[in-house]
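quick q for whoever's on today - can somebody do inverse folding on this one?? i tried earlier but teh output was garbage lol. tokens:
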């Protein structure tokens, strides 16, 4: 994929849609394109968070460890962003992300991510919106599961 194709891909991601093309070109140039085979981990729960990933193509499962084994809590697809919590909060990875199919990603280092957030307030706002939507979905899922357990018990 050419640099211009990567810039176009980034422009289609809501998080980067309002960033000027020259800055997207810098992002595309400084990010690392990685390909994962189905079943291969991008990172594991507990690992140090050194980068975030944008899914260019394919799908990935987000899994958390539970007393009964791994639990898939989300499936991410094209244009989704994964791995940001560990770099934002400076905590170990909160989940394992595994390629569910052949997966192409752009890896964005922690340093580049923070530079982008500080230089582009609009990107920071879009990022907060995305995180808020994820939190809302997680809260709704937890409420649904709690209600089911109450009804069963």
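ok took a stab at it. sequence:
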């Amino acid at each position: 994929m050419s640099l211009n194709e990567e810039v176009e891909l980034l422009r289609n991601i809501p998080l980067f849609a309002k960033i000027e093309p020259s800055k997207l070109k810098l992002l595309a140039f400084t990010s690392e394109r990685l390909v994962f085979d189905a079943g291969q981990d991008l990172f594991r729960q507990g690992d140090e968070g050194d980068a975030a990933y944008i899914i260019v193509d394919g799908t990935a499962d987000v899994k958390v460890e539970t007393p009964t084994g791994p639990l898939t809590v989300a499936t991410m697809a094209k244009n989704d962003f994964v791995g940001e919590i560990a770099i934002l909060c400076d905590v170990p990875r909160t989940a394992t992300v595994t390629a569910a199919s052949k997966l192409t990603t752009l890896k964005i280092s922690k340093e580049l991510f923070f530079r982008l957030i500080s230089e582009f307030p609009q990107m920071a706002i879009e990022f907060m919106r995305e995180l808020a939507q994820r939190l809302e979905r997680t809260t709704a899922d937890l409420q649904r599961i709690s209600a089911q357990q109450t009804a069963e018990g």
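fwiw The longest strand covers residues 69-76. also Helices lie at 3-11, 21-30, 84-89, 110-119, 121-152. so keep that in mind when u check it
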